[in-house]
Each structure stands twice: as structure tokens, then as C-alpha cells.
């Protein structure tokens, strides 16, 4: 099967090197640029994700293929409208995947990896989790709707490829109609912000219209503070990949009852028994 992301790796490396060189030769006091140890950790997280995906893609293909075989209709891949429908179906799937991975703690434990850098550059796009299995339920309905598995995986790759290029401080706000429809570097900087006003916003993949429709859109109005509300202060890839799962485990061991245990797993990342309604 053709792997778009694997073929794009040389492009990622070239663009990352060019962006890093731009900060070296044309520094900007208003931008964070790069820190070698941080970028190295992001690249290692990306490589680990690629290794895990080698096996996980086999599982995905098998599950999607089984769902596709029992689908009541099989949509034709040679029809342009099928690709248009797939684009919007993938966008909706990604929006809800992304939103729930910020609002359900056990899912956040996987996604938090991507937000753990206190820098924002193209290397940050490579900081990916090593637990990709949490994404399976969100795209499985597309196979049941009759989209061929190879089309689903290709569209996912196209979305990821697009999102790589919006992880940059080197691009300001774009032409207003583009900013209104598409996810842009400005919108995604907001998404990576730990500022209180920016938390849990701008979940879109290629498009930003879903955030506008569902009330999760925020424009970039003040300087963004990147990272987590409580940063982990480590460049160790294993700790970056597992720190929130370890924190959940600690909370579960200390929980006094099943209700609190369920809250630590299924509520938002900031939930504690003290914040629960009485």
C-alpha cells in the first residue's frame, strides 16, 4: 500500500532544516525558534510513531476491510463525488477525534504528547504519540459507509501532511477568506497555547469551519504560551510518551471509590474529586 507520509519524510526533513536555518540566520525576538534538545525529542517521538505504525497499519487495514465487506454499499473510487464526500467525512471524524482527545483524560494521555513541547515549529508536528489505537473508533464508520480502506488511509495521510505545515511561527495571519475556512498556522498556534483563553479550541484538521459551527473557535489575539498548563520538564522520549498514563495510574491507586476512579479516567484532564458537582 502506498504510504504518503513515509514518502513525505524527505520533505519534512528539508523543511525543518530550512526553518531552523531561518531562525539561525534571521532571528526574531518575538518568536521562540528552535532548541536542539526539544527538536531532537520531537523527531525521536515521530520516529517512534512511525515504527509503531508499521504494525498498527496492518491491524487498521484488517479492521477497516472487515467493516467495508459488510457495508451495505461500496462507494466507487473512480467517482470525484466519492472523494469529496470522503474529504468531509474525514474532517468530521478528525474534529471529534481531536476534541474528545482533549476532553477525556485517558484519550488525552495519548494526545498530550503532541502538546508537550514548549516550542512551536515544524519539529513539533513530528511529536506524535506511540499509542495510535485510540483513533480506531472514529474512522471505522467511514468503512461501514462504504469508503474503501485504502481511500480512508490515504485521506488521513493527506490531512496529516497538511497539518505538518501549519506548525510554524514563521507564517502570520493569511488572507481573511483563507483564515475563515481553513486551519492556518495562526489558528493552530492558538490550539497549542496553554493560555487560559486558548485552552480546548481550534480542533480542526484542514478546515476550521467545524470549530466555528460547534463553538470551539478562538482567534489569535494575544501572544501564545506553548506547552501544557503544567509542563513536564523532560526531553526523555519515554517519559514524554508515558507521563500522563503514569499520572492516571497514580490517581487510580489513590482513589477512594469507583466513582472517583471513573472520573480520573473519563473526565477532562483537569478533573479532580474537589471539582466534581455535588
Q: How would you explain this protein's 3D organization?
A:
This protein is mostly helical and 278 residues long. The protein has one domain. Helix content is 60%, strand content 0%. The chain contains twelve helices and no strands. Helix 1 runs parallel beside helix 7, helix 2 packs parallel to helix 6 and helix 4 packs antiparallel against helix 11. The longest helix has 35 residues. The chain is globular. It starts with a helix and ends in a 12-residue tail after the last helix. The relative contact order is 0.14. The model has no long low-confidence stretch (mean pLDDT 95).
Largest sheet entry: none
The overall average pLDDT, rounded, is 95
Q: Please tell me how large the radius of gyration is.
A: 19 Å
Give the end-to-end Cα distance, rounded to a whole number of Å.
53 Å
SSE pattern, N- to C-terminal: HHHHHHHHHHHH
Instruction: Name the poorly predicted regions.
Output: none
- Strands, total number: 0
Q: In one word, what is the shape? A: globular
Indicate the topology.
Elements (H helix, E strand, L loop, with lengths): L3 H22 L10 H35 L9 H24 L1 H11 L6 H4 L10 H9 L4 H16 L11 H6 L3 H7 L17 H6 L22 H18 L3 H9 L12
GO biological process, one term: lipid biosynthetic process
Membrane topology: Multi-pass membrane protein
GO molecular function: glyceryl-ether monooxygenase activity; iron ion binding
Amino acid at each position: 500500500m502506498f504510504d504518503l507520509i513515509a514518502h513525505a519524510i524527505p520533505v519534512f526533513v528539508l523543511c525543518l532544516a530550512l526553518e531552523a536555518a531561518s531562525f539561525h540566520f534571521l532571528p526574531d525576538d518575538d518568536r521562540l525558534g528552535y532548541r536542539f534538545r526539544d527538536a531532537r525529542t520531537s523527531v525521536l517521538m515521530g520516529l517512534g510513531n512511525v515504527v509503531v505504525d508499521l504494525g498498527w497499519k496492518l491491524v487498521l487495514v484488517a479492521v477497516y476491510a472487515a467493516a467495508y465487506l459488510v457495508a451495505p454499499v461500496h462507494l466507487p473510487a473512480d467517482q470525484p463525488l466519492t472523494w469529496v464526500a470522503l474529504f468531509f467525512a474525514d474532517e468530521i471524524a478528525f474534529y471529534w477525534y481531536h476534541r474528545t482527545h482533549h476532553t477525556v483524560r485517558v484519550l488525552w494521555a495519548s494526545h498530550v504528547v503532541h502538546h508537550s513541547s514548549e516550542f512551536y515549529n515544524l519539529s513539533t508536528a513530528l511529536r506524535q504519540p506511540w499509542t495510535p489505537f485510540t483513533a480506531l473508533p472514529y474512522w471505522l464508520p467511514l468503512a461501514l459507509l462504504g469508503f474503501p480502506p485504502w481511500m480512508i488511509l490515504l485521506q488521513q495521510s493527506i490531512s496529516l501532511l497538511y497539518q505538518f505545515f501549519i506548525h510554524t511561527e514563521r507564517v502570520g495571519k493569511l488572507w481573511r477568506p483563507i483564515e475563515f475556512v481553513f486551519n492556518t498556522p495562526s489558528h493552530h498556534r492558538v490550539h497549542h497555547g496553554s493560555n487560559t483563553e486558548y485552552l480546548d479550541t481550534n480542533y480542526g484538521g484542514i478546515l476550521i469551519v467545524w470549530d466555528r459551527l460547534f463553538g470551539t473557535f478562538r482567534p489569535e489575539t494575544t501572544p501564545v504560551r506553548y506547552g501544557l498548563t503544567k509542563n513536564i520538564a523532560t526531553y526523555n522520549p519515554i517519559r514524554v510518551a508515558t507521563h500522563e498514563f503514569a499520572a492516571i495510574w497514580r490517581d487510580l491507586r489513590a482513589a477512594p471509590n469507583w466513582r472517583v476512579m471513573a472520573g480520573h479516567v473519563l473526565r477532562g484532564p483537569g478533573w479532580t474529586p474537589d471539582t466534581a458537582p455535588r
